[in-house]
Amino acid sequence: FCNAGLLELSLGKFRNVLLNQTNPVEAVIRNIASNVTVIIFQVHAQQSDVVISFDKNPSVNSSGTGADKGLVSILRPQQSVCTWYLRSLDASQVFSTAISIPYMEKDPIPGGCNLEFDLEVDPNIYLDYTLVDIHIKFAPANLGYSRGANPPSCDSGTGQNSRWRLRYDVYQYFLPENDLSEMVLMSHIRKMSEVQSIRANGVKMLTLTTDDKTNVYFSSLPGQGVIYNVIVWDPLWNTSAAYVPVHTYACSFADLVDNCSSLSKLSTKVFFTAFAVLGLFTCFFGHRFWKTDLLFVGFIFTGFFFFVFITRVTGLGYDVRLILTAVAGIIGGLFLVASWWRFGSVLLCMFIIGLVLGFLFSSVVFFTPLGDYRVFRDDVVFWVTFSSVALMIPVLFVGCPRILNILASGIVGSYAVILAIACYVYTSLAYITLNLLRRVLNDYFSRAYTNVPFQTNDFIILSVWTVLALSGVTVQLRRERSEVPFPPHPYLTWKRERERRSTNVLDPSHHIPPLRERIHNKLLHIKELFQKEQPAGERTPLLL
């Protein structure tokens, strides 16, 4: 650990350093071996930008600024010492870690054919994020060469003797969930800095050729730390080199509201907590309380499409859209209940219930690595496949609607509880449906890779979901096995009961006065309670 003005480094070794704005730290490496031709020096901080430069007074073409920055030093013949300068942009001290990584003459040079960014040779990965996706881009690499030689031309041809033979493997690494500490980041970013450790710890998401654009999109996971890096590979020499890793939490540490520590809005917590209460009731009692089940399913069905509609066509704020969605969902649920009461169409209700379960099932399918297959980048292929999988559920269970309803109420109702948990504790299971919503709302989300972490926290919450779903389905199957599959048509039952009372004079209900007369009599009775007792006049005692 160093906080003085001089930082002595060894090749391949990390050193922690405290940086400030006023006194630059001089980083030095001595006794560099003669077979080393290139050194990539890099420094990492959690949230504050640092300046790394070749000179004590940095210029645009000789320095880089950011939380994850690096410089490439092309060594001259006989050179055995390298020097860089570090300082922070913040007035307070910034904790950072630095490393220098050596490469030989046959190793490719990351960013060696840079034409887009300020540095002549730029090994950095540039990252931008929104609440929806993360975009990384980097400069193409060049072939390695010996000390003192001229670098290979970047545009001399596209054959196997040029940089066009290089391949780029993009890696992703997730930090531990619900952990935003600096020390955790620094310890894990070391696993994504050198070629061997990147391959051992990271997940390879894709491979790019020189014909592809050197930019990639990923789905955004606010509050979840993730590290990206790129390994450039020379297939002729079977040599590799790593770019400078970059990290993000897809959120701001500095914001007072909706920062990395408190991402869920109050309105979101209230909405999904109430939704979870209804879902938990439906999970265990949905089939018995048939109208409540219809209200729950109608709320989901109507609320989802209404939220998509108002988000697409209006510029309303999130809280307003959420309130309107809740109102629309309640109206949709009541409409489904009213439709059942008036027409008694079990087939229509079961189709909607099966469709909701099918959409959840299809979302789970595309939540797996299957969803990142290149063929599903095409929106037509994706939506046709997604809809086919979703429609498969109501078709398969068309002959056993009671089982379909119990399965839907148990699985969907328990998932509502998981969504509520996600408002308070990070879990990747929320992205089962959130990624679907993102794809509906954003035209370009199809280009994003949707891989998510699955760690201890997710296994625990997945177990909770499984136990709730199995318990709800089992309880309902045991309770309803001796009951009629569905309640009778309520409107026809009401009509038959009314006709029976009007024709059967022996039925006591036949002699019940009309509703208007009963209300009038009740009001008269209440009025009498407040009347004073009137005197009966003079009373004469009886004479014996």
* Straight-line N-to-C gap: 121 Å
Helix content: 25-40%
Could you give a short account of the major beta sheet?
Answer: 5 strands, mixed
**Structural classification:** alpha+beta
Our count of helices gives: 12
What is the CATH class name of the largest domain?
A: Mainly Beta
How many domains? The number is 2
Beta strand %: 15-25%
Unreliable stretches (pLDDT < 50, length at least 5) are: none
Q: What's the number of extended β-strand segments?
A: 18
Keywords: Membrane, Transmembrane, Transmembrane helix
GO cellular component, one term: plasma membrane
Organism: Antrostomus carolinensis
InterPro entries: TM7S3/TM198-like_dom, TM7SF3
What features would you describe in this structure?
With 544 residues, the chain is α+β, with helices and mostly antiparallel strands. Helix content is 39%, strand content 19%. The radius of gyration is 34 Å and the shape is elongated. The protein folds into two domains: 227 residues, Sandwich (Immunoglobulin-like); 215 residues, no CATH class. The chain is built from twelve helices and 18 strands. The termini are far apart. The mean pLDDT is 87.
